[in-house]
Amino acid sequence: MTDQTSLDPRVHPYRPDLAAAHLKGRVQAARYVEGVPCQVRSGFVSLREGPGFEARQSSELLFGESFTVYEEQDGWAWGQNGTDGYVGWLRLEGLDADINAATHRVTDLRAFLYPAPDLKTPFVDILPMGARVAVVGEQGNWRELAGGGWVYHRHLSPLDATPLDPVDTALRFLGTPYLWGGRTSIGIDCSGLIQVALALAGVDSPRDSDQQRASLGTLVSADGTGVDYRRGDLVFWPGHVGIMADATDLVHANAFHMQVTREPLADVVARAGASGINGVRRL
Question: Against a cut of 0.85, is the pTM above it?
Fold first, then answer.
C-alpha cells in the first residue's frame, strides 16, 4: 500500500473513515465509496475544511464546475472539485445532479443571471469570471442557460474563443479585496488570481501557490537572481505568488494591502525580508 504521507490530501479524497473507491489499495480507510458526479449551480460556493459555517474556507467553486460527492452530512457534501482536484466541504444546495456540458465562459469580472431577458428584472445570481455555462437559446442580445436564467451576451465568450492575455486579466482585478480561498472579483487570494488569469488564457493551473510553483511553465530562477523579468513571469515566495506586468511591476493579491495591487517588484522583495523569492517560472 502507498505511503499515505506521499498523497496530498488537498487533491486526494481520503480520510481515516472514508476514501474514494479509486484510492483503494493506495490508502487505508474504514470504507471506500464511489463518488456521485454533480455540478455547481450557484454563482460561486465556499469550499471549507469542515462541515460547518465556522470552518475555514480553503477555496471556492464557480458555477458550472464539476464536483464529485463522496459523503453528505447535515446539508454538507464532502468531495472533490473536477477543475483543480481540490477536496473539501460545501453546501448541498449549491449542487445539482443534472450536468450540462458548457459552451461558453464568463469573461467579464462578473455577470448577472436574470430570470428573463430583461435588464429591469431583479437578478437571481452573480456568475463570476471563469464560470462555465451551457447556452441553449437566445433572444436578441440575451443568452438563455441550461437550467434556467439569462445572461447578457457581451459577458460571455465561447469556450473556443481566442485565449485572453493572463496579465490583462489579472490587471482587471486591481482593487479586488483580498480573501483567503477566494477565486472571484468579490474577493480573491494570490493563487486564485493566478489560476483564474491562466484559465482564461487556456492554461490549467492547480489551486495553491506551492502547487503552481511545482508545475507551471519553466523554472528560470530558484531565487530570483539573474532574471531578466518579462511580462507574464510568475514570481513565487513561500506561500505567495504574483505575475509580472512588465519588467519591473508585479500584480498580486496580497494581505499587506488586503487587495489586488500593481507595485514594483523591488518593493515586494524589500517587504518580504527573510522570506525571499523561491522561484520564477515562465509560461
Answer: yes
